[in-house]
Amino acid sequence: xxxxxxxxxxxxxxxxxxxxxxxxxxxxxxxxxxxxxxxxxxxxxxxxxxxxxxxxxxxxxxxxxxxxxxxxxxxxxxxxxxxxxxxxxxxxxxxxxxxxxxxxxxxxxxxxxxxxxxxxxxxxxxxxxxxxxxxxxxxxxxxxxxxxxxxxxxxxxxxxxxxxxxxxxxxxxxxxxxxxxxxxxxxxxxxxxxxxxxxxxxxxxxxxxxxxxxxxxxxxxxxxxxxxxxxxxxxxxxxxxxxxxxxxxxxxxxxxxxxxxxxxxxxxxxxxxxxxxxxxxxxxxxxxxxxxxxxxxxxxxxxxxxxxxxxxxxxxxxxxxxxxxxxxxxxxxxxxxxxxxxxxxxxxxxxxxxxxxxxxxxxxxxxxxxxxxxxxxxxxxxxxxxxxxxxxxxxxxxxxxxxxxxxxxxxx
Amino acid sequence: xxxxxxxxxxxxxxxxxxxxxxxxxxxxxxxxxxxxxxxxxxxxxxxxxxxxxxxxxxxxxxxxxxxxxxxxxxxxxxxxxxxxxxxxxxxxxxxxxxxxxxxxxxxxxxxxxxxxxxxxxxxxxxxxxxxxxxxxxxxxxxxxxxxxxxxxxxxxxxxxxxxxxxxxxxxxxxxxxxxxxxxxxxxxxxxxxxxxxxxxxxxxxxxxxxxxxxxxxxxxxxxxxxxxxxxxxxxxxxxxxxxxxxxxxxxxxxxxxxxxxxxxxxxxxxxxxxxxxx
Lengths: 412, 278
What we know:
Chain A is α/β, with parallel strands linked by helices. Chain A is built from 16 helices and 14 strands. In chain A, about 40% of the residues lie in helices and about 20% in strands.
């Protein structure tokens, strides 16, 4: 029987109107996901294979291996249908909603990857879907907005606050509280009230399940380290879960250091999204976890060049594993992530999501921590980020970037 | 008998809500005092939190204005101490602010400071009964009430769990969704009141009550009190947007409070026939 807590973290801190829905979901999680009732997990795995394209490859990266003096293996979640690990969870939850007899799906999205994955899963399984997305993120991630709408999903702009993921989650919780009887909220990461953090982790742990077998086969043993970027933490927990009991495997959660690790308490703004590295324990969006907050407990606005990491909280299980010193939280800044984005694109032929670029930036800055064999999770592909990468790179002096002044084909 | 219990002793309780510090500290004080003059029996004072997930757009707007004007937990307690009202005050806020307050971890320092300032109870919308033990214990030690919300979806074992924890009054959520004034009053209210009939704690209905007529109908239907937030916050917001003088807005709030209190009283008359004179 699973509990709702990870040490002191987790729990269920939601309005009373949502508690019965959360309890109903916890019951469904135990029966269908953990108990495989009615063959739920069999169907999930079949659909992940046939619709999603699993298993994804574990690719040996020759050039990175030579550069870092470590055998570097890339877990290619960018090759999953939709271009990111997000489909693992979205497909699992939409299918579960169907098993539970729900009739409508709502979801929030930051970078748009989770919204896109949910829209695809909902279309695939014939469920109506609405996605809430901050206005600022809509402007930063237009291709994903188009994709969601093409899949038949309604995209609702959220204009309050700074118009990013935090506000989109609030708005989705309000919709859920209003329509809870027939609606399932497909939360996008290992965050929120129990059972979401465990359930999303279980759906995502297919990443480490495959990677563990693949690396044993290809490298002849377990890796010395696994590296994954961490915003809310779903690809992180997915990449780590099956290695948590392997004490010799170092697990690095790479957060967005943004432009600085300092905070402007007066303005209520953190110029980073590094809640594992710099946050304090508190309660946000249904769970006790580490979050960016001022001394009064007001939640701060976070920042990252990557909208997929731009969130003031993090999954409670990750917070717990950091306290237990099983996971090492590290962070890299916006500039380093953009550098890594360009470098990987040019040197490996992989255009990574800006989220993923943070993991590569860490490997670049600290190759000595990778050990002899490392697995880096390529959480998603970077097509969605092209507009912001072009804009952000033009404002910076990046050694790895092409000439941004004549970029968009001008003068060719 | 706590002061909140007393407020329900002689007829229905009218419980207005305002976000403290909306749109600024001094105006907000005048507005809360106007509610007391208008007949409030208990006042719920919102301590603004940056992520008010249970609130609709009206109260979210109030919270944002108050935060922008510099409201903090310490300023809130000063506000409570300075208020010139003689009705019990209930602090309505979210758990993170309670949990974070003071140097010691947990809800105790917040409860201590609240009790010292004159708060007599709490409503914490994101703290279900399952997670409430630490706050419940701190409240018990200081003689404060802990109010819980019962939603239209709350049934079975959950009702038992809440009944074991609640004191002061139970906040009956009249319909699903978030806070906000409505033009009708949901039939979910009657069902909720029926489910709670055996509870030995006053039942105050909130969510969507806008007029004296609503108040009358709900109290006539068996409620021991009504809770009104958004309809009052709307008056504050309109005054702020049109730059009206504070005393004019306060007069409107007082009149609205009186309408709601009188509506509740009229509903009570219908429910409890006058004793026959011999």
